[in-house]
Amino acid sequence: MSLKRVILLVYVQVMVLTMYSQDFQFSQFYATPMLMNPAFTGNTVQSRITGNYRNQWSAVPNSIGFNTYAFGYEHNFENFNSGIGLQFIHDRAGQGALRTTAVLLSYAYRIRMTRKFSIKPGLQFGLGNRSIDFNELVFNDQLQTGATTSAAQQDFNDKSRYYLDLNAGAIGYGKYYWVGFSIHHLNKPDIALMGNGIKLDMKYSVHGGYKFPIKKDIKKRLVSAFTLTANYKHQGKRDQLDFGGYFSYSPILFGLWYRGLPVKNIEANLPNNDAIIVLVGYSKNGFTLGYSYDLTVSKLTAATSGGAHEISVSLEMASRKSQRQRRRRSRLMIPCPKF
């Protein structure tokens, strides 16, 4: 194993363990709305199922990267101004060395303040598990000239911890705009795998956007639009901003946005630049399919990391009555993108 590959391998493993106390994330954050803010729960005509997959840093030596899977179901109870949802997520980091699994239950309630403005508060709670397999990690005493030994001198057993998680949020919105905030890990659960005392930092998020209509059909249905969005997150010592736009011409959608916060360095003389994200999506008759790629612009470049690939799919299901009322119901929905 060359010295360059050894240094990169050690660097990435340090990053894996550093992210131990950070949340996983999706670039297509509106394709996982309940993970972004529980107030998005039930933002559909009637029912919706979603599936998401993210592969990050696939080009790193020894396939030490991140693989994240998410599945969700949500239902809109219009007569009760309520939405409920169930979200499952599983993340594997470092060839599966660090694993995180969570099952979350969400509820949101719509309060119509005026004919043109509504507020939706939301709550979410669930059970999480974090575990680590030390046999999948490479330690210093395993790195030898030209080879990696089969086992480390350290004697570790697999560790696992279950914890409860509590999240909350709210969104205010009108016909073409929305603004919201969310707080995750309100109870700051202990996620230490050895002993106690490692708390999962609360994560604060502020997000919003505006949809600019471009073209409507003869039935006054929106055919083309441009949507600006922003999503700011703060957790522990880390800050992140996603800012960009989506252009849609039904049924095709394109997106481009930037992730980072260049006005605030991660450390001295190290700019907080992460990635440029490009997206192409398809949406028609309640079915959506999206693919995005994160072009890494940080010091861990796309050439050495492989960037990140992400796929999302969702299917809306509704009774014939709900389908006939789709246009009226859509006026009660948050006008955010589906990716």
Notes on the protein architecture:
The protein is mostly beta strands and 339 residues long. It has one domain (3-330): Porin (Beta Barrel). Helices cover 10% and strands 50% of the residues. It contains 5 helices and 17 strands. It has helices at 3-18, 33-36, 302-305, 320-324, 326-330; strands at residues 47-56, 66-77, 82-93, 98-109, 111-112, 118-132, 143-144, 147-148, 159-173, 177-184, 203-216, 222-235, 238-249, 252-260, 273-284, 287-296, 308-317. The strands form 2 sheets. The protein has a 14-stranded antiparallel β-barrel. Strands 7-8 form a two-stranded antiparallel sheet. Strand 5 (111-112) and strand 6 form a beta hairpin. It is globular, with a radius of gyration of 21 Å. It starts with a helix and ends in a 9-residue tail after the last helix. The model is unreliable at 4-17 and 150-155 (pLDDT under 50).
